[in-house]
Design a protein that fits this description.
Blueprint: E1 6-13, E2 20-28, E3 31-40, E4 46-52, E5 55-61, E6 68-75, H1 81-84
Antiparallel strand pairs: 1-2, 2-3, 4-5, 5-6
């Protein structure tokens, strides 16, 4: 995430008994585009991002050992100074949302790990 107008989001969505869907959303100049999506049935999800120069690859799985690519080689310049203007460094984090509505659902984050170069 660079800011609200330039970012990538890996989002796991689902309502009630509907199947969950894992989506990769790119926001460029405030316009949201879903770049990839997959039905997701496991109770737990592990998400990963790999950066390689000007490319990001996004991964998912039910465990660290079962990771697979949701999308490879997305354009990392979406979060760059030249594109987003005023860049101060990438930000990676986790969040949960009920989209502004009251909810009795819960989310639990077991761990977060970042490995830099």
């Amino acid at each position: 995430m660079q800011n609200d107008r330039f970012q990538y989001r890996l989002v796991l969505v689902g309502k009630g008994r509907q199947p969950q869907v894992l989506r990769l959303v790119q926001v460029k100049q405030g316009v949201e585009t879903v770049l990839a999506r997959v039905l997701y049935k496991a109770d737990e999800v592990v998400l990963g991002i790999q950066g390689d120069g000007l490319k990001y690859s996004f991964l998912y799985g039910s465990t660290e050992g079962s990771m697979q690519y949701l999308l490879k080689d997305a354009d990392a310049t979406v979060c760059s100074t030249n594109v987003a203007k005023g860049f101060i460094g990438p930000f990676v984090g986790m969040y949960a949302s009920s989209n502004g509505r009251d909810s009795k659902r819960t989310v639990a984050f077991s761990w977060f790990d970042y490995t830099g170069l």
